[in-house]
Amino acid sequence: MERYKPALKPKPNGKTGGDYFPSRSLEFIDSGCTLLNCILGGGWILGRPVNIVGDRSVGKTLCAIEACANFSRQYPTGNIEYREAEAAFDIPYAETVGLPAKKVNFGSEGIDTLWDTIDQIFDDSQRYVTQAKKSGKPGLYITDSLDALTSKEEKERDRSKGTYGTAKPKALSELFRVLVRDFRQTRTCYMVISQIRDKIGATFGAKYTRAGGKALDFYSNQTLYLSHLGTIVKTVGGIKRTTGVRIRAKCTKNKVGPSFGECEFILRYGYGIDDLMANVDWLEAVGRLNEIDVKKDQVAKFLAKSEKLEDDEYRALVKQASVVVTKAWQQVGADFKPRHSKYA
To answer: Which of the listed residues 13, 225, 237, 330 has the most CB atoms within 10 Å of its CB?
Structure first.
């Protein structure tokens, strides 16, 4: 029986074997966080729809921005299309956390392009895949967010009349039925960002859901839920300020790796996901700090010292810790793999 190959950090060309299908040539976009890559099965997968879900201020857009940054590095000639429907995107700030703004297509009028309805996104997605087939280049298509979109039917209806609000779920379902094969053919990561909603009347099972009906439940290959755990406060010169938030990520659906994988990381304002701190915290939790030559009582000192390093030295340290974490994650994953094959 072939041994289990857990989440791998994407190689320069984005290819890894994946968790479920080690021999299949799958391509992934680095998420910007080693542990997040691990629970996703290698990163954000090319050729499939993926869904990021969460409440306000949990880093949904930031995860999309980091996906853009890493996609641009892995596929310099690839296509990035960002459909910003919330009218709240700040390009200068996004650039500080890695957005390659000059390589991102926001629409015909740039960031001021209006994306009001799911019907517009449907038509635009069809245009995108037609062009992608001709270019033969991989792509990243992001809708941020699904909740900010209405439908043509809802937009034109008489407000005095009631509605069951089924137009958007129907349109979204049709979008995936028509285009999901094209996403695979064009090697497009079709990323949809969703706001979390309370599941009214739920007495058991999941207490939360998101808009759009059941289409994303069925078609999404990776569904990542983000939740807020707390804030990070820093004191400088006697002044306290919140400099980040701690986030828990849970992959509730995964077709390229085990589902329900969880990890925690810190989003640092003006920086992005703190990969080094996430790696150190995880290694400490699993008792493997010695693998990066750090003692348990020296973690704070180690992190403080790393902040004073030059950029190149800091990135080298992050890379070193990422390699250690990836290897440790593989070993842990192998321990959970069934020892026997049911079918020879």
So the answer is: 225
